[in-house]
Design a protein that fits this description.
52% helix; alpha/beta; 4-stranded parallel β-sheet; Rossmann fold
Length: 405
C-alpha cells in the first residue's frame, strides 16, 4: 500500500512504525473473511481493511470524526485477521497506534470517558476489583437480570504446594484473574509441583498493562510493565527458567514487553529478556512428562481457544493436543477461530456486539453436547460463564481435578 504520511507523524517513532505496517498491506481483503465484526455488521469500515484505510487517512492528515473513532472502537483486537493475512500485516499494533492518536483528536462523551476511566482505575487493581465484586454480590438481587449474570461468584482460594524444587519458574497472578479465578494458578502450581517445578509469585507484580494499553493510555500501560519487570528481575538474575502466564490475554501482552519498551533506555534490555522468558502454561506442559500426573479424565470437553492464544501467541492446537494426549474427549467446535466477544473490556464498552458474538460462540460450543467448556483466559471464562448453562473452567483446572489422588 502506498502512503503519504504527513511530516508531524513521520517525525515520531509511532508514526514511522505505523507507516511500515501500512505499506505491508496489499489490499487483498482476506482479513474480511475472518473478522467477527465484519461478519456481524457487513460494513467495510468494520473490517480490518476498512480500519486500515481509516488509520491511513488520519496519518495522511485527513479529517477524523466520531464515526472514525466508533469503527476503531468496534474492533475486538482479536487478531484473527493476522492469522489470515498472507502479508504478515501487524494489524494489532496498528489498531493500538490508531486508537492512541485519535484519542487526542476526537472528544468522547462524559459517559464514555467515565466508563473508560473506571475500567482503568478498578480492573488492574485486585483489591479494588475484589471490593467491587463483593459490593456487587451484596446488591445482586436488586440488579437487572442481565447484570446479575455478569457478576461472578467470589471463589475461595485453595492451598498451594510449599515444597521447594531445584527447577523454579515465576507466575503472573494477574489482576482480574487473581480475584475472579484464583484456582487457575493454584491448579497450575499443584500440577507443576508433581512435575518437580516450583512456582514463585513475587510481591509487587500486578496487571500486565493490557487494560491501559488497549484503552489508548500507553504510558500508563508501560508503568505497569516496568513495575512487573522490577519485581521479576532479581529472580531472573538468579536463573528462573520461565515466567508462566495462565491467562492468554496477559501472556500475549507480556510477550510484547520487549517491543513496547524497545525505546526505553532503562528497560529495553530487561523487557526483551522478560518477553523471551514469558510462556503460556501450555508451552511448559507440552515439553514435560505428563505421565507423572496419573490422569483419569471422564468429561466430554468443548475447548474454546481464546483469540490471544491462537492468534496473538500463535499457539493454536497446543492445548487441544495436551488434553487429547491425556485422554480427554474433545467435542467438535464450529468456527473455533472466532472471538467469544469478551476481548478484555470490549464486553463492557460494546455490549450489544459482544452479546451477539457470545451467543454464536456458545451455540457452537454446545453443539457437541459437552459436559464442560474449557478455555485458557480469564476474560473468556467469565464472559461465557455469564450465559452458559454448561460449566466453564480453565483447562488447567480440568487436569488438576482429574489427577488420581
Amino acid at each position: 500500500m502506498q502512503t503519504n504520511i504527513i511530516q508531524k507523524y513521520l517525525e515520531t517513532a509511532k508514526g514511522q512504525e505505523a507507516d511500515q505496517i501500512l505499506r505491508s498491506c496489499v489490499h487483498c481483503g482476506f482479513c474480511t473473511a475472518t473478522c467477527p465484526t465484519y461478519q456481524l455488521l457487513g460494513s467495510e469500515l468494520d473490517s480490518p481493511r476498512g480500519r486500515i484505510y481509516l488509520i491511513k487517512q488520519m496519518l495522511e492528515g485527513n479529517g477524523v470524526t466520531e464515526k472514525t473513532q466508533l469503527h476503531l472502537d468496534r474492533c475486538l483486537t482479536c487478531r484473527s485477521c493476522e492469522t489470515t493475512c498472507p502479508s504478515g500485516v501487524r494489524y494489532g499494533r496498528l489498531i493500538d497506534i490508531g486508537r492512541d492518536l485519535i484519542e487526542n483528536r476526537v472528544n468522547r462523551s462524559i459517559k464514555s470517558n467515565l466508563t473508560r476511566f473506571a475500567l482503568r482505575k478498578i480492573v488492574p487493581y485486585p483489591q479494588r476489583f475484589a471490593t467491587l465484586l463483593k459490593l456487587g454480590q451484596f446488591v445482586k438481587p436488586f440488579l437487572p437480570a442481565a447484570l446479575q449474570h455478569k457478576l461472578p461468584q467470589l471463589p475461595k482460594k485453595s492451598l498451594r504446594p510449599k515444597q521447594s524444587h531445584s527447577r523454579q519458574m515465576l507466575v503472573l497472578e494477574g489482576c482480574a484473574q487473581s480475584v475472579a479465578t484464583p484456582e487457575t494458578n493454584a491448579s497450575a502450581a499443584r500440577i507443576l509441583d508433581r512435575l518437580g517445578i516450583q512456582l514463585i509469585s513475587p510481591d509487587n507484580v500486578g496487571c500486565c498493562g493490557a487494560v491501559s494499553q488497549h484503552l489508548a493510555k500507553e504510558e500508563e500501560g508501560r508503568q505497569f510493565m516496568r513495575r512487573n519487570i522490577d519485581a521479576w528481575w532479581p529472580y531472573i538474575e538468579q536463573g528462573v527458567e520461565s515466567i508462566i502466564v495462565t491467562a492468554s490475554g496477559c501472556g500475549v501482552m507480556v510477550k510484547d514487553y520487549g517491543h513496547l519498551l524497545k525505546d526505553d533506555k532503562d528497560y529495553a534490555e530487561k523487557a526483551l529478556r522478560v518477553s523471551e522468558l514469558a510462556k503460556d502454561i501450555s508451552e511448559i506442559l507440552a515439553n514435560e512428562n505428563l505421565t507423572l500426573l496419573d490422569i483419569n479424565p471422564s468429561d466430554r470437553v468443548a475447548f474454546h481457544s481464546p483469540c490471544t492464544l491462537q492468534h496473538g501467541q500463535k499457539l493454536n492446537g497446543q492445548v487441544e493436543n495436551i488434553l487429547t494426549g491425556l485422554g480427554f474427549e474433545l467435542t467438535p467446535v464450529a468456527d473455533s477461530h472466532l472471538c467469544c466477544g469478551s476481548a478484555g473490556t470490549y464486553s463492557i464498552l460494546q455490549p450489544e456486539l459482544s452479546q451477539q458474538l457470545l451467543d454464536k460462540k456458545l451455540s457452537n460450543l454446545d453443539q457437541g453436547q459437552p459436559d464442560i467448556i474449557a478455555t485458557a483466559n480469564v476474560g473468556c471464562q467469565m464472559h461465557m460463564t455469564s450465559k452458559s448453562e454448561v460449566p466453564v473452567k480453565h483447562w488447567i483446572e480440568l487436569i488438576d481435578e482429574s489427577i488420581e489422588s
